[in-house]
# Entry
Amino acid sequence: MMGIANMQPRQLATQLLNFALVLSTAFMLWKGISVVSDSPSPIVVVLSGSMEPAFQRGDLLFLWNRGMDTQLGEVVVYNVKGKDIPIVHRVVRRFGGGKSPLRLLTKGDNNLADDTELYAAGQTHLNRKEDVIGSVVGFIPFVGYVTILLSEYPWLKQAMLGIMGLMVVLQRE
# Structure
């Protein structure tokens, strides 16, 4: 096994450039999907059990936000002003539409009450164009659990990044 000290500068530079290429490719893919889906976050992970049994914690959701006329019963992902984590809930009421802005009231399938307590102060409904980042069009069960583990155990994220970095540097061509 070749150590970092034994690597030629050219080999080390090649490995680091390969690592940068992988990261930039992933970033470009993410941005491309964002443009196509018209969503700033086209893929999200379910973080709580509020949508059970429809979606479980750790499910990976795919969002679409282009040309959507949100209907009752549709599952949407929205951001609340002042909070960083998007919320995945179902539309239970629609207000307006057409010439007036479409406003929505949402609720988690596993919750007793609607989401008015989750909205920003003084907000009683979601504005479809401003608050909703996309409608769920598909999902893969439990694949997002890795994301949950990485957010709940920060040391795990650092360990994985360290291992990936070592693998790139120590990899032989």
